[in-house]
Amino acid sequence: xxxxxxxxxxxxxxxxxxEFSRPVSFxxxxxxxxxxxxxxxxxxxxxGAVNLDLRGHGREVGTVDMLGHGDLLGxxxxxxPYTWHLGAEAFSLVRADEFDARAVRALCNEDPVLGLALxxxxxxxxxxxxxxxxxxxxxxxxxxxxxxxxxxR
Length: 153
Known about the structure:
Elements: H1 11-18, E1 21-26, E2 31-33, E3 41-47, E4 50-56, E5 59-67, E6 72-73, E7 87-90, E8 94-100, H2 101-110, H3 112-141, H4 145-149
Antiparallel strand pairs: 1-8, 2-7, 3-6, 3-8, 4-5, 4-7
């Protein structure tokens, strides 16, 4: 993603948002959140890498995406019912800014200009990730060029 969440916000809005953050770190292998858990916070990654994964019926289905420097970790905090749609695990030592979702939602209600800018940026992140996932799936599932051009017999 070319523009990080924080860089996409107006300066004063970014400063106000940072008032609701605190620095955190996660060691490699730490589960940061689980699918269907309460989405009560989100993070902007400063260093390290996080795997987004999907687990179902007690088994891991697989890694969906890997996030790194400047990436937003978590968007479900913005959309009711505020539960995670994936899980996340630190792949390496991660340092991030952690934000209190309830306080940020209240700030967005209080400052609609900031709220709109933040919501738009989160939506861009979601759209980018959906498109990247679509491309990966098409790359895996798309028939080979030779298969597409063979005449049916």
